[in-house]
Amino acid sequence: MSKFWSPLVNDLVPYVPGEQPKVANLVKLNTNESPFGPSPKVIEAIQAELNDSLRLYPDPEGDSLRQTIATYHGVDPQQVFLGNGSDEVLAHIFYGLFQHGEPILFPDVTYSFYPVYCGLYGIDSRQIPLTDDFEIDPADYCGSNGGVIFPNPNAPTGRYLALTHIEKILDANPDRVVVVDEAYIDFGGTSAITLVDRYPNLLVTQTLSKSRALAGLRVGFAVGHPDLIEALNRVKNSFNSYPLDRLALAGAKAAYEDESWFRECCQSVITERQRVTQALEQQGFEVLPSMANFVLTRHPDKSGDYLASGLREKGIIVRHFNKPRISEHLRITIGTASQNDALIDGLSSL
Ligand SMILES: *Cc1c(COP(=O)(O)O)cnc(C)c1O
User: Fold this and answer.
1) Which of 207, 321, 333 gets mutated to test ligand 1 (max ligand atoms within 8 A of its CB)?
2) What are the boundaries of each domain within the chain?
3) What is the pTM of this model?
4) CA-CA distances (angstroms) from residue 112 to 119, 260, 315?
């Protein structure tokens, strides 16, 4: 606390990102990054952009990238909003679309940035318990509210909600925005972007950080009705007109132009996810069915704390949340085959 702080700052409870360790040679399975590099075409595109044009501001609306993403998903560029990572897109959503006086709804076990944005903007929220199987029950999201948000697949559970269930939530909330955070949709799910033309209250966010291996570039986006996008543009242009720099715009565009790289990386994660799940189950772990690039798992006899610190001593980092309902669980990012072997070996000796 300092006398210089705005009073609000005293009460902020900031998000705690997963650790980015400074030591090399760790098996890093704690922040759901891609274990593969980005497409070589992305690197080329960024290198081609390293020139005198850096003295000029980037395109504030990112027209070329928006067009690429719109074409890829079969929507109009006016339905696409770009941000500096989907975290920034989410922040603008909370500010611009979730302040209606009623509490917004999200699951009790979910992405821990949502309560942080609520704290930042003074938005009330109600956390809806997942079922005993850690599933979202659409019926729980049908009462009056100021908006609804959940990831699909959910994080950190990995559980996927079918589009028919999402439609129930959309149908029950015609006057409120329902945000589906699809950070992990490319690992086996079907995107709700296919529903945006039928639901003016649906906003879908995605990121290039996970399935496109560009966490370091910071690019995310939202897709929805132009009226929702317009709200986000108003907020953005009242905050920072240039959230994506020239390198990010060029690299992100190139990522969509290498479909085969993208597909191979996602397929490899899906295959390895199945292998890791089976191996953990053979060791007595309970593993939630996951459609993401991570699994949430617990052992009936070994504590989450013990397992996480035991792995760390072996140079393997996974995420352990000291939170209700999941304090005995580990969230383990699916890595390369050899990283996953190290994980499986490491756990078997604990
Ligand atoms: C990783 C993640 C994000 C944020 O990704 P960015 O890197 O900011 O694009 C958003 N939502 C969920 C659920 C995530 O796991």
Assistant:
1) 207
2) 7-37+260-348, 40-258
3) 0.97
4) 12, 33, 26
